[in-house]
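Notes from the 1:1 (GR / supervisor)

We went over the backlog. Supervisor wanted to see one worked example end to end before approving the batch request, so GR pasted a single chain during the call. The sequence is below; no edits were made to it. Supervisor asked that the structure be written out right there so they could see what the output format looks like.
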Amino acid sequence: MKHDLSPHAVWREYLRGQDYKRAVGLYEQVRKNENFVQGKQWEGLHVSTLDPLIFNVLRRCVNLFVAMLVSDDVAVSAAPFGRGKQDDQLEHILEQAFDCAMERSNVKALNRLALRNACVDGDSCFYIHFDPDTETGQPAKGDIKVECIDNTNVYFGNTASDEVERQPFIIIAMRRDVDEVKLEALKNRRPSDDINAILPDGEDENMTPNENHRRVTVLLRMRKTENGIAFLKTTQHATVMAEKILPYTRYPVAYMSWDRVKNSCHGVSPVTEAIPNQIAINKLYSMYVQCIKQIAFPKIIYDVTRFPNGYSSEIGKAIGMRGNPNDAFLSAFKAPDISAQVMALLRQMMSDTMELMGASDASLGNVTPTNTSAIVAVQKATAAPLELVKLEFYRFIEDTARSFLDMMGAHYGVRQYVITDEDGQEQQVSFDFGTIRGGEMRLKVDVGEASYWSETVQTVTNDHLIETGLIADPLLYLQNVPDQHMKGKRGLMRALQKQKEENNGKEQTAPESYAG
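Structure output shown during the call:
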């Protein structure tokens, strides 16, 4: 199949993607959701009869959801199918490589942003790429980078599906400085006609507002080929980077939706359905406070025919009147109190809104700790609806890790790592990541409580084995203790190994001295 790779053809695909997002109301809904979570809940309304108040229920729920889902650490371990000595060594190397790559790419911090985007906007996306100029402390330079992309800037070729690997093509739109894009085109040896055609363009509804006139929309288009993933970078009128094929087996994109929609690539945010409730709460609270200000204090009523100059409440000031002062008509009037149903309704609306979104009083800490078991049970029941989102988040992290492994095989080359052998000795080994390119790896992703629990169980089991005498060698015990649970573990293993060698030497020389 022949593909039209001209800038105008790519731009038409981009415009079709925009038409679909407008058809499902994505741009307007994302803008509205962002405003409400940020507290801009009276945007565009001019109210003069009352003071607009904001009781932001949505922000509290969003912060709670994100905190509950990322409160635990994310660990990734990769292992081949075999379990021989070489396979164990490969597993340790891949574990170190994953830890270093995730630390440099700041994935753990980006996870919070990704979950926040999914909760507020409905979807979240990671774009993973390789930066060849990153210093790694190795002879080979370059490492993996991760960017969090808004769902308004990701365009799938098949808008009826959110499965990344089944897309005919994917386009990522970016707003970048014109001079920066021209410099990139020059490095890619583009002709002068293309460089001169890179011009500032106007703002669009899917881009950041109030940008200066020195920015241009750049489209990164990727598609699958027999030899890998083909990448093309264009603007509306110019090609910034000609199509280049990299030996990847999967798209370097991870995508998740908070709540999936059938036959659509975009999900639904829990904020969307709660916005009418938030508006009602703000209006009712504002009217309640306005009414309190009007009727809370008593009003003075007087007969204007007897006080033609008006009545003054100033202390010691004489008040002139007509007629007998003993017959002066003056009284204080207090309006009836506001019905208690108003405040009861407000509290019920706020409680029900948070409850339906999945944020109960127990999860928010608004309970008196009189029965610990009951509180724990309620908290677990509250977290149950988030289990589906948590499983989707785990799948999202696993897709990210698989893209990491794919890029390691394509770009890492030969790198040096320090591993510990069976005798507790550290040795530096070289590993060629090209050997894992295209190989079937079993990738196990331990996320959250499962990772912590497995490490805790491993430590407790080792303690039990050495207490019962099934493990007599302390060196073997230390080898099975997770590195995170013991600081200075390798130094202690070296000391024990040295002590073991000295004891063995004494045992060998003892019979000779006795024979002499």
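Supervisor's comment: Residues 386-412 form the longest helix (27 residues).
Batch request approved.
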